[in-house]
Specification:
InterPro entries: Spore_Ger, UPF0353/GerABKA_families. By secondary structure, this protein is α+β, with helices and mostly antiparallel strands. It is built from 17 helices and twelve strands. The strands form three sheets. Strands 1-2-4-5-3 form a five-stranded antiparallel β-sheet, with helices on both faces. A five-stranded antiparallel β-sheet has the order 6-7-9-10-8, with helices on both faces. Strands 11-12 form a two-stranded antiparallel sheet.
Length: 496
Amino acid sequence: MDAIQKDLNKNIQILKEIFKDCDDIVYRFIQIGKNKKQICFVFIDGLIDKQLISEYAIQLLLTIDENGNLDVNKFKSNLLDTIAKEAIAVVEVDEKSQMGEIVDSILFGDTILLVDGIAQALALSSRGWSTRGIAEPETETVVRGPRDGFGETLKMNTVLVRRRIRDPNLKIKNLQIGRRSKTDISVMYIEDIVNDELLKEVFERLNKIDIDAILDSAMLEQLIEDNYISPLPQIENTERPDTVAASLYEGRIAILVDNTPFALIVPATVGTLLQSAEDYYSRWTISSFIRILRLLAVFLVTLSPALYIAITSFHPGIIPTLLTYYVAASRVNVPFSAVVEAFLMEITIELLREAGTRISGPIGTIIGIVGGLIIGQAAVEAAIVSPLMIIIVAITTVAAFALPSYEFASGLRFCRFIFMILAALFGLYGVMLGVVMLFTHMARLNSFGIPFTSPYSGLGIEEGDLKDTLIKSPIQDMEKRPEFTFPKNRRRLRRR
């Protein structure tokens, strides 16, 4: 766009043409000085703090003018500089010389001050839209630990992290992504810990993005991850500031996006996706036991229905004889094969899960519980499915909720249907084929150059990375940071 004109009326006319049919744009004119110099404040109603502009800009200008302290004729060309330094009390003030710059500032929630006869403008920081207060994250609740969670305001989110890392080496780099949305992005890292190559890779991927709008961090995640076709996430997301702070201390990088409470953490591995913030607030023995249970949950979520199909349809001889009689007796009146039975129940559970998600609050919970009980009981009484199938589906559903990462659990739920198809075609051989394919796929996955299966794949075992992966060792034994991030400074604890 063109430069700002000296004629205030021309500038206002240009702005009105740019913001044509935008009824929320406000133009506030005032006059100061003996010659009645015209000044105009331009802002978007609802995006600014009106009280701030009224008290610390407009009112001060008018008060100074009444006392005769602001001589318009005396300052002439540097009147704008005098207003910024002596006449108003707004904390952040920037000078703008291009029309495009002031348009962007208005859209970001700043107030523009234009003075007649001066080909420059002041952008007054006045962002003050309505925000949601700090509340406990609904997706990552803990029994013991901090209760604050991210909100939809980027500045508030960065402050929540800054409170936990009072270190000048914590760097925050701000970007804007989206040709139309111009969404604010903050990249956070600790300079003397993070690996330079990892940091360079993150900025390269962010700078390559060319899209109209970024509405949520999930969109950004899909644009920068290594393999967007994979059902498994290669980037961790969280609503918890303490999780972000802990990840930064490990040498990882956090990406915060405006208008969303979910922060992205890179790189992510199987080990990090199976960890919860509460692991570090509980006794190490309890945390280790829970982590082993989570690995069992991964097995149940992925393989339980497939093993039921394979054993009942192809390999009933591998289970005890009495159990075989029970399974056969429970399915004697079921008109469908084990494959149809399993798919019918799994799809029903997924529908109930989706319905409960879309209906928030207690109604959604009631739909999930009552719907599952009623449908399951009715299906058994109608001899559509066997009681054992109901038990397997229930265990599988509960196991999915035991995983800390919702995205990782969703990916495994999707893989479960592939395993069920393979089991229906080839029995246990198909299940083993699926396991090999899944492990191969995970071994080939990377997260910003870091193997997705590390440290299980062998990276960093000699350095003791498994002390905080399969189990959680006492905090006194975790003297070094994880090796998979290749941090500059490995030592985080010194015993005395």
